[in-house]
């Protein structure tokens, strides 16, 4: 049956729910996708001046829920966050975080 393979592949995608605050926009994203890509796919306005290369810090987000689902920060992410304003102990760079579970995220004011 035409299309069966595609449907099977889509059904095997593991999805996560991301909520972007303060607007509260909900986005469904595939695990392994970056938070930045999921935000852009969901038409969430999030700065990304370097195009997701981890060298500008403009995609700073605060992870309100689900921080434990994210991998540890790399040295490069830690270094970049040191020069970003308003950083908290729950801050991450959206372009450097691969999704592996549900998240509630706050986009801080610029
Ligand atoms: S988009 Fe530049 S650091 Fe994430």
Q: What is the fold's blueprint, element by element?
A:
Layout (H helix, E strand, L loop, with lengths): L3 H9 L2 E7 L3 E6 L4 H7 L18 E6 L9 H7 L9 E3 L9 E4 L4
Parallel strand pairs: 1-5
Antiparallel strand pairs: 1-2, 3-4, 3-5
The protein binds FE2/S2 (inorganic) cluster.
Helix content: 10-25%
The assigned CATH architecture is Roll
Task: Provide mean pLDDT, rounded.
Answer: 91
Instruction: Give the class from helix and strand content and strand pairing.
Output: alpha+beta
Tally of DSSP β-strands = 5
Quickly count the helices. 3
State the domain count: 1
Order of helices and strands: HEEHEHEE
The shape, in one word, is: globular
Bound molecules: FE2/S2 (inorganic) cluster
Could you tell me the strand content as a percent range? 15-25%
Largest sheet: 5 strands, mixed
**Quick one: CATH superfamily?**
Beta-grasp domain
* Low-pLDDT sequence parts: 1-9
Give the spatial strand order of the biggest sheet. Answer: 2-1-5-3-4
| CATH fold title | Ubiquitin-like (UB roll)
Regarding CATH, which class?
Alpha Beta
For the termini, the CA-CA separation is 51 Å
Q: Cα-atom Rg, whole angstroms?
A: 15 Å
């Amino acid at each position: 049956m035409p299309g069966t393979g595609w449907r099977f592949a889509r059904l095997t995608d593991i999805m996560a729910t991301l909520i972007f605050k303060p607007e509260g926009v909900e986005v469904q994203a595939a695990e392994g996708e970056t938070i930045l890509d999921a935000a852009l796919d969901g038409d969430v306005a999030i700065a990304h001046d370097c195009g997701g290369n981890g060298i500008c810090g403009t995609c700073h987000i605060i992870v309100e829920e689900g921080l434990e689902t994210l991998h540890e920060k790399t040295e490069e992410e830690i270094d970049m966050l040191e020069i970003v304003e308003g950083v908290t102990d729950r801050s991450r760079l959206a372009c450097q975080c691969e999704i592996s579970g549900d998240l509630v995220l706050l986009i801080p004011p610029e």
